[in-house]
Each structure stands twice: as C-alpha cells, then as structure tokens.
Sequence to fold (236 residues):
Amino acid sequence: NAGVTQTPKFQVLKTGQSMTLQCAQDMNHEYMSWYRQDPGMGLRLIHYSVGAGITDQGEVPNGYNVSRSTTEDFPLRLLSAAPSQTSVYFCASSHTGGFNQPQHFGDGTRLSIL
Amino acid sequence: AQKITQTQPGMFVQEKEAVTLDCTYDTSDQSYGLFWYKQPSSGEMIFLIYQGSYDEQNATEGRYSLNFQKARKSANLVISASQLGDSAMYFCAMRGYALEGAGGTSYGKLTFGQGTILTVHP
Fold:
C-alpha cells in the first residue's frame, strides 16, 4: 500500500528557479490538496482539487500553480522560487472533500530557497 | 471561520501511563469532523482518529480515544498505556461542511491547531 507518495523528499533551490513537487496517490481519491507547514503557523492550504481537471485556490496560493490531469497525480509548481517559500510541503488526499473524510498525507517535501 | 486551539505546547508522561491532549474548536457549521494526527520527528503526518459532529459515542482506535464534548466544543485525545514511540507532535484538526462547487478557498480544507509535543519518559 503506497498511499500518497511525494517526491523529492528534500530540495534546495536558488531564488528565481522553478520546480515541480510531485504527488501521486493510489487510493482512487477524488480530493487532493497541498499544504505548507511553517513554524508557528501550522499547516495552511495552498491549492486543492476535487477531481481530474478541477482545481481551486486555497488560502495561500500566490507563487504556486497546480494541475490535475489524472485522478492519481497532483503536481505543485513553484513558478519563481522566493525565500519565503522555504517550508515543508505536504500533499494529502481523501475520497471526497466531505467533512467526514480523513485526509491521508504524504511524507512531505522539505524545500529550502537560498 | 473555523478555529482549533491546542493550549498545551508540551506534555510529559511516564511510559505505560495515560495522557490527555486538549483541543477546543470553534465553528458555525452544524456538520463537521474532528481529526487527530501524529507527526513524529521523521516528519510524516499520520492520521489517528476521527469524530463526527453527529456521532453520539466517543471514537476509539486501539489505544487512542477521543473525548468529545460537543456543548463545550472540545475534542481531547486520550492515549492509554503510553509507549516510547508515542513521543511526537500531535495535531488536532477540523473539517467543516461546504458545498462542492460553491467556490471559495475552504472546500475540504483541514484547519489545524498549533500542535502539542508529547514526550514519553521511560
């Protein structure tokens, strides 16, 4: 049971570089989301998707882009990395976005922007 | 708006004893879910237990139980017979009711508390 798989686990970027964080789930979940975890601020929702071809912004979407071409994959793109985007990024999925659905998280990607 | 408050930045417990981690919440939703997650030092987020707002019985999962007091808006996690491997950060979280397709920034969003670091002593 792979669950939610994130790659890479660690990444260091220079300011202005772009990159894509990969996320894949094998549970046939419709709902997928990206969070960032910062000290003292908890986890904050960046973007989410309710199914293939459908994405929407979360509470901190600026500087990030997402797409959902398949049910399984939900990549997060940093368009032009900034030091403020240094964080731990988590991808999560659930059957739906309903309130009774627990989200299952990947192991996270630790991203440092120099 | 939803808010989760965890007032205990750190807790200590002796191995084999029980410990309660506090969580209070605020929401105007009638339907909502409450969740607890464990984050060990390795960093992953592990789902532990779920309680629905309409559930009349407290949820239990092995050594984990959720003490749900709806009128007081509290959802405390109780860990029985603590083990050294229970040492970790614990997050309380909430998922509210929202209509899919209604737009906005919050559909399906998990709102997290600040977390409690639990240390289990041998």
Q: What stands out?
A: The first strand of chain B starts at residue 3 and ends at 5. The two ends of chain B are 41 Å apart (CA to CA). Residues 1 and 27 of chain B are 6 Å apart (CA to CA).
